[in-house]
Specification:
about 70% helix; two-stranded antiparallel sheet; about 90 residues; 2 helices
Length: about 90
């Protein structure tokens, strides 16, 4: 797994760096769906910041989702192990 990470990670980092260098011009990030020409809520920022921020937010939400699922799975397995141990004692 570590070897795969060393094979895949450097080209991805180089690609992200190339995207960041190519997209340095500022764009308007608009949060106003009704007026795209002069939005009430809008930010001028380089496009690569928007792309990198959205990737980072996606990684964080994905990590939180995986953590919550693993926690639920662990709690479920502990609950079934506890019930499995106490039920035979009740039958005797």
């Amino acid at each position: 797994m570590k070897l795969l990470r060393w094979i895949v990670l450097p080209p991805v980092v180089i690609l992200v760096m190339a995207i960041a260098i190519a997209n340095r011009k500022p764009v308007t990030f608009s949060l106003d769906p009704f007026d795209p020409t002069s939005p009430a809520i809008g930010l001028e920022m380089p496009l690569f910041l928007i792309i990198l921020a959205s990737v980072l937010i996606g990684i964080l939400f994905g990590g939180l989702g995986a953590w919550a699922q693993a926690r639920r799975k662990t709690a479920k397995s502990k609950g079934s192990a506890t019930m499995g141990e106490t039920l035979p004692a009740l039958r005797d």
